[in-house]
Amino acid sequence: MRTGNSSLRNSLFAILDKRADEISPRMHDILIGLYEDWLWLDERIDAISTEIEEISQYDGGCQLLMSIPGIGPIISTALVSAIGNGSAFERGRDLGAWFLASTAQEISPS
What we know:
Helix content is 75%, strand content 0%. It has five helices and no strands.
C-alpha cells in the first residue's frame, strides 16, 4: 500500500474485505469505528479551520499580521489571541523575548 492518508482511505475497505479471514469480527468493527472517528475528526478540523479563516478576515490585527509573508490565518489568530494588540510590550524586542521564552518552555523537557 502507498503511504499517505488518501491511499489508506481509498483502500481500507478493500483491505478489510481481502483479509476478512485473518481479521476477527471484533477487530473489523474496531477498525471501522476508528475510520468513522477519523472522518469525524477531519470534518471537525475543516470546520475549525474555516472558523479560524473567517475570524482572521474580520480582525484588524490578524489582517495586519497576514500582510507579513509567511503568516496566514492560523498564525495570525494565535498571535492575536496570545498578545492582543501588543500594547503590553514597549518595544519589538520585548515581544521577541516573550516569544522565545514561551516557545522555549514548550520544547524543553519536563
